[in-house]
């Protein structure tokens, strides 16, 4: 990836994450407590997840977000020093983040209203599109699928780990 890509796409990624997660951190706990019962009644199969998210304090959620931010800073540093598979690793994280934004938008559609992270997800769509277009120009479709799946798996595992750390720190 060229110097302009680094300047316009790679370096802003941690900032985009901070902006998005700041919205989530600020409203997640109060929103979950306020909507917990209605969510459980609408989505009884998700009760365990809803209860878990309702149990995350603002501090717990912030600590979890900080852990994820550290991962993004490390990936950004790795690509800046042109480490082994740096572009692929960074792309995997970016694809997972972009899908995460789409999940928030999908949640808003399903809930038919605001969900934590929705506003910044919508605002970050052009950035996400630009990033995905850059990845598309750099990788084959097979590589995008492989690294995208790797990013999603990593995101799920790391989200579990981040929430575990957040719960430990929030107690």
Topology:
Layout: H1 3-10, H2 12-42, H3 47-54, H4 58-80, H5 86-111, H6 118-123, H7 125-138, H8 141-170
Structural write-up:
The protein is an all-alpha fold and 171 residues long. Helices cover 85% and strands 0% of the residues. The chain has eight helices and no strands. It has helices spanning 3-10, 12-42, 47-54, 58-80, 86-111, 118-123, 125-138, 141-170. Helix 2 packs across helix 3, helix 4 (58-80) runs antiparallel to helix 5 (86-111) and helix 4 packs across helix 8 (141-170). The longest helix is centred in the N-terminal third of the chain and has 31 residues, at 12-42. The radius of gyration is 17 Å and the shape is globular. The mean pLDDT is 94.
Radius of gyration: 17 Å
**How is the biggest beta sheet arranged?**
none
Class inferred from helices and paired strands: mainly alpha
- Overall pLDDT: 94
Count of beta strands? 0
Helicity range of the residues?
Answer: over 70%
In short:
The chain has 8 helices and no strands. It is mostly helical. It is globular.
Please describe the structure with a list of short key phrases separated by commas or semicolons.
mainly alpha, 171 residues, single chain
């Amino acid at each position: 990836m060229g110097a302009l890509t680094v300047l316009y796409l790679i370096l802003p990624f941690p900032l985009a994450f901070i902006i998005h997660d700041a919205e989530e951190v600020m409203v997640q706990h109060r929103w979950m407590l306020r909507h917990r019962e209605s969510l459980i009644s609408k989505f009884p199969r998700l009760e365990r997840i809803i209860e878990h998210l309702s149990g995350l304090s603002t501090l717990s959620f912030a600590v979890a977000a900080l852990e994820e931010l550290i991962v993004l800073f490390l990936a950004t540093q790795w690509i800046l020093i042109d480490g082994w598979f740096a572009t692929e690793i960074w792309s995997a994280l970016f694809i997972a983040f972009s899908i995460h934004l789409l999940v928030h938008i999908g949640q808003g559609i399903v809930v038919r209203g605001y969900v934590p992270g929705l506003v910044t997800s919508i605002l970050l769509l052009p950035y996400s599109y630009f990033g995905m277009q850059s990845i598309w120009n750099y990788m084959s479709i097979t590589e995008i699928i492989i690294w995208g799946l790797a990013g999603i798996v990593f995101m799920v595992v790391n989200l579990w780990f981040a929430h575990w750390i957040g719960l430990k720190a929030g107690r």
